[in-house]
Amino acid sequence: MNIVTLLPFIVLIGAMFLMTRSAKNKQRQAAQMRDQMQPGTGVRTIGGMYATVKEISEDSVLLEVAPGVHAIYAKNSIGAVLEDAEYNRIVHGIEPDETEVPDDASSLTEGDAPADEKKIDLGKEAPEAPAVADKADKADESGEAPAKDAKQDTKRDGDADAK
After folding, report:
1. Measuring CA to CA, how many Å separate 49 from each of 43, 60, 64, 66, 92?
2. Where on the phi/psi map is residue 145: left (φ > 0), alpha (ψ -120 to 50), or beta?
3. Which residue ranges are recorded for the region named Disordered (predicted)?
4. Over the stretch 87-135, which tens digit does the pLDDT of each residue have?
5. Strands (E), 6-162
6. Within-domain flag for 78
7. Residue 75's domain is classified under what CATH number?
8. Residue 48 has pLDDT above 80, yes or no
9. How far is CA 28 from the centre of its chain?
10. Which domain range does residue 35 map to?
11. pTM for the full model?
12. Residues sharing a CB contact under 8 Å with residue 134, sequence separation 6 or more, in sequence order
Protein backbone atom coordinates (compact mmCIF):
# COMPACT_ATOMS: atom_id res chain seq x y z
CA MET A 1 0.00 0.00 0.00
CA ASN A 2 0.99 3.53 -0.63
CA ILE A 3 1.56 5.89 2.34
CA VAL A 4 -0.62 8.54 0.66
CA THR A 5 -3.67 6.26 0.93
CA LEU A 6 -2.97 5.56 4.63
CA LEU A 7 -2.39 9.21 5.58
CA PRO A 8 -6.12 10.16 5.99
CA PHE A 9 -6.70 7.16 8.25
CA ILE A 10 -3.68 8.04 10.41
CA VAL A 11 -4.88 11.63 10.77
CA LEU A 12 -8.39 10.45 11.68
CA ILE A 13 -7.11 8.05 14.33
CA GLY A 14 -4.86 10.79 15.77
CA ALA A 15 -7.79 13.23 16.00
CA MET A 16 -9.95 10.61 17.74
CA PHE A 17 -7.16 9.94 20.23
CA LEU A 18 -6.84 13.66 21.06
CA MET A 19 -10.61 14.05 21.49
CA THR A 20 -10.97 11.10 23.84
CA ARG A 21 -7.94 12.27 25.82
CA SER A 22 -9.46 15.73 26.45
CA ALA A 23 -12.81 14.15 27.39
CA LYS A 24 -11.08 11.90 29.91
CA ASN A 25 -9.30 14.92 31.40
CA LYS A 26 -12.63 16.72 31.84
CA GLN A 27 -14.18 13.66 33.50
CA ARG A 28 -11.20 13.36 35.84
CA GLN A 29 -11.42 17.05 36.82
CA ALA A 30 -15.19 16.73 37.44
CA ALA A 31 -14.60 13.71 39.69
CA GLN A 32 -11.96 15.63 41.65
CA MET A 33 -14.36 18.55 42.04
CA ARG A 34 -17.10 16.27 43.34
CA ASP A 35 -14.66 14.73 45.82
CA GLN A 36 -14.05 18.20 47.27
CA MET A 37 -17.69 18.41 48.39
CA GLN A 38 -18.23 18.49 52.14
CA PRO A 39 -21.33 19.13 54.22
CA GLY A 40 -21.98 22.89 54.26
CA THR A 41 -20.43 23.51 50.83
CA GLY A 42 -22.41 25.52 48.28
CA VAL A 43 -22.98 23.81 44.91
CA ARG A 44 -24.66 24.44 41.56
CA THR A 45 -26.40 21.54 39.87
CA ILE A 46 -26.20 20.91 36.13
CA GLY A 47 -29.77 22.24 35.99
CA GLY A 48 -28.63 25.59 37.44
CA MET A 49 -30.05 25.22 40.96
CA TYR A 50 -27.96 26.49 43.88
CA ALA A 51 -28.03 24.53 47.12
CA THR A 52 -26.04 23.63 50.22
CA VAL A 53 -24.67 20.10 50.73
CA LYS A 54 -26.07 18.41 53.86
CA GLU A 55 -24.99 14.77 53.50
CA ILE A 56 -22.81 12.84 51.07
CA SER A 57 -23.22 9.13 50.35
CA GLU A 58 -21.46 6.86 47.86
CA ASP A 59 -23.30 8.00 44.72
CA SER A 60 -25.85 10.56 45.92
CA VAL A 61 -25.91 13.89 47.74
CA LEU A 62 -28.54 15.38 50.07
CA LEU A 63 -28.94 19.06 49.23
CA GLU A 64 -30.75 21.79 51.14
CA VAL A 65 -32.46 23.80 48.43
CA ALA A 66 -34.17 26.25 50.80
CA PRO A 67 -34.32 26.37 54.61
CA GLY A 68 -36.00 23.10 55.62
CA VAL A 69 -36.35 21.84 52.03
CA HIS A 70 -34.10 18.86 51.20
CA ALA A 71 -33.62 16.98 47.94
CA ILE A 72 -31.53 13.95 46.98
CA TYR A 73 -29.40 14.28 43.84
CA ALA A 74 -26.95 11.98 42.09
CA LYS A 75 -23.32 13.06 42.49
CA ASN A 76 -23.04 13.31 38.71
CA SER A 77 -25.69 16.03 38.68
CA ILE A 78 -23.44 18.46 40.59
CA GLY A 79 -22.11 20.92 38.02
CA ALA A 80 -19.82 23.01 40.23
CA VAL A 81 -18.63 23.21 43.80
CA LEU A 82 -18.59 26.91 44.73
CA GLU A 83 -16.38 28.83 47.11
CA ASP A 84 -18.17 30.37 50.11
CA ALA A 85 -17.71 33.95 48.89
CA GLU A 86 -19.12 33.15 45.43
CA TYR A 87 -22.04 31.14 46.86
CA ASN A 88 -22.97 33.98 49.26
CA ARG A 89 -22.71 36.54 46.46
CA ILE A 90 -25.01 34.56 44.17
CA VAL A 91 -27.55 33.16 46.62
CA HIS A 92 -27.71 35.76 49.39
CA GLY A 93 -26.55 38.83 47.47
CA ILE A 94 -23.72 39.44 49.94
CA GLU A 95 -20.88 41.28 48.24
CA PRO A 96 -17.39 40.75 49.63
CA ASP A 97 -15.65 43.85 51.01
CA GLU A 98 -13.49 45.24 48.25
CA THR A 99 -12.00 48.57 47.43
CA GLU A 100 -14.26 50.82 45.41
CA VAL A 101 -13.26 51.31 41.80
CA PRO A 102 -14.21 54.68 40.26
CA ASP A 103 -16.37 54.75 37.13
CA ASP A 104 -13.96 57.04 35.30
CA ALA A 105 -10.35 58.09 35.55
CA SER A 106 -11.02 61.73 36.50
CA SER A 107 -10.82 61.02 40.23
CA LEU A 108 -7.45 59.35 39.70
CA THR A 109 -5.91 62.40 38.03
CA GLU A 110 -7.25 65.15 40.33
CA GLY A 111 -4.48 67.28 41.76
CA ASP A 112 -1.85 65.76 39.47
CA ALA A 113 -1.95 68.43 36.74
CA PRO A 114 0.10 71.61 37.28
CA ALA A 115 -2.02 74.74 37.78
CA ASP A 116 -0.09 76.88 35.25
CA GLU A 117 -0.87 74.50 32.38
CA LYS A 118 -3.65 75.89 30.18
CA LYS A 119 -6.20 73.64 28.55
CA ILE A 120 -6.17 73.12 24.79
CA ASP A 121 -9.47 73.32 22.92
CA LEU A 122 -9.64 70.43 20.46
CA GLY A 123 -12.93 71.52 18.88
CA LYS A 124 -13.17 71.67 15.08
CA GLU A 125 -15.01 74.98 14.79
CA ALA A 126 -12.74 77.92 14.04
CA PRO A 127 -13.81 81.44 15.06
CA GLU A 128 -15.33 83.36 12.15
CA ALA A 129 -13.21 86.21 10.78
CA PRO A 130 -14.83 89.59 11.68
CA ALA A 131 -13.76 91.31 8.43
CA VAL A 132 -15.55 88.75 6.29
CA ALA A 133 -18.66 88.92 8.47
CA ASP A 134 -18.74 92.73 8.21
CA LYS A 135 -18.51 92.62 4.39
CA ALA A 136 -21.37 90.11 4.24
CA ASP A 137 -23.53 92.23 6.62
CA LYS A 138 -22.93 95.41 4.57
CA ALA A 139 -23.81 93.58 1.36
CA ASP A 140 -27.04 92.26 2.90
CA GLU A 141 -28.07 95.74 4.07
CA SER A 142 -27.47 97.34 0.67
CA GLY A 143 -29.37 94.58 -1.14
CA GLU A 144 -26.36 93.47 -3.13
CA ALA A 145 -25.17 89.92 -3.38
CA PRO A 146 -22.13 89.23 -1.22
CA ALA A 147 -18.81 89.41 -2.98
CA LYS A 148 -17.39 86.18 -4.33
CA ASP A 149 -14.12 86.65 -2.43
CA ALA A 150 -16.05 86.96 0.86
CA LYS A 151 -17.66 83.61 0.12
CA GLN A 152 -14.25 82.09 -0.58
CA ASP A 153 -12.87 83.39 2.73
CA THR A 154 -15.55 81.71 4.84
CA LYS A 155 -14.85 78.24 3.45
CA ARG A 156 -13.51 75.75 5.96
CA ASP A 157 -12.18 72.25 5.74
CA GLY A 158 -14.89 69.90 4.60
CA ASP A 159 -16.95 72.58 2.80
CA ALA A 160 -17.49 71.94 -0.88
CA ASP A 161 -18.89 73.95 -3.72
CA ALA A 162 -22.17 72.53 -4.98
CA LYS A 163 -22.32 72.63 -8.76
Report:
1. 8, 16, 11, 11, 14
2. beta
3. 93-163
4. 888 887 877 666 666 667 666 666 655 556 777 777 777 666 555 555 5
5. 42-45, 50-56, 60-66, 69-74, 78-82
6. yes
7. 2.30.30
8. yes
9. 30
10. 11-97
11. 0.47
12. none
